[in-house]
Amino acid sequence: MAQNKLLIILITIISVIAIISYLASPVFKLRDIEINDLQYISQADIKNKLAPCIDENIWLLTRGTIAKKLLKNKYMKAVKIKKKYPDTLQINIVERTPVVKINNNGKYTVVTADGFILEEGAMNTSCKVPLIVGTAYSFSDTKLQFPDKIDEIVQALEKIDKNSRTNINKIIIKDNNKLDLMLSSNIEVFMGNLEEIERKFEVYSSIYRKISGENITIDYIDLRVVDKPVICRKK
To answer: 47 with 19: CB under 8 angstroms?
Structure first.
């Protein structure tokens, strides 16, 4: 009986050693990192940040430690990490969307629609977003706050497609609470007052997609009467 118990213990020890040896073998060295498609964050930057993890044992890498390291990038809202055995990490990132920037004493601050600060004190921004001018703003912790009416503009801007939004170079707020856009192609868009601002941005986006898709050359777009948009073509 004692010999049987000793044999069982011996077999158990050998099995544990074998399992540990197998899990510690080169088969489980991290060799690949898969990342979902991203709009604002560079996959190459993420892989460079995680380069020290390559060739580490995948069993010993903790998801929490990796996520904490990645979430230092403010453009990341959330990250989900999955181990794909034997040698791959799958990383799914939810990005924050940059919407506008302000020029604060010669340096740029980039924010989301809810005012979360993505970049601050930058001489050049890492993404293309409209510059908003002619309005007051204030800082509160990690956020930038606009007056209510201007906040409506920012919220409406977030809802249009990325290409239409990034084509806007400048959003100009005038003293009488009227709004103009200056596009990257030096086309001016007269938006008028802030009434129906969300609809005006929707109409602008639709017009931009059309003129861009059909390569139409124009002088300006007038959306002051949103039901009767005017598109002035170059002669």
So the answer is: no
> Could you report the per-residue pLDDT of 158-211, keeping only the tens digit for each?
999 999 999 999 999 987 778 999 998 889 999 999 999 999 999 999 999 998
Phi, psi of 96 (to 5 degrees): -85, 145
Helix, coil or strand: residue 217: coil
Encoded amino acid at 172, one letter: I
Tell which CATH architecture fits domain 28-95.
Roll (3.10)
> Given pLDDT bands bounded at 50, 70 and 90, which one contains residue 123?
confident
Per DSSP, what are the bridge partners of residue 116?
143
Please list the helix, strand and coil fractions of the chain in percent, rounded to the nearest 5, in that order: 35, 30, 35
Burial class (CB in 10 A: 0-12, 13-18, 19+), 103: exposed
Q: How far apart are CA 109 and CA 133, in angstroms?
A: 12
Where are the chain's structural domains? 28-95, 100-233
C-alpha distances in angstroms, 114 versus 78, 98, 146? 16, 10, 10
What DSSP letter does each residue of 121-182 carry, written as one string? Answer: EESS-SS--PEEES---EEETTEEE--HHHHHHHHHHHHS-HHHHHTEEEEEE-TTSEEEEE
Write out pLDDT tens, residues 21-49.
Answer: 545 556 778 999 999 999 999 999 999 99
Contact 22/51 with Cβ under 8 angstroms?
no
- Determine whether domain 100-233 maps to CATH 3.40.50.10960: yes
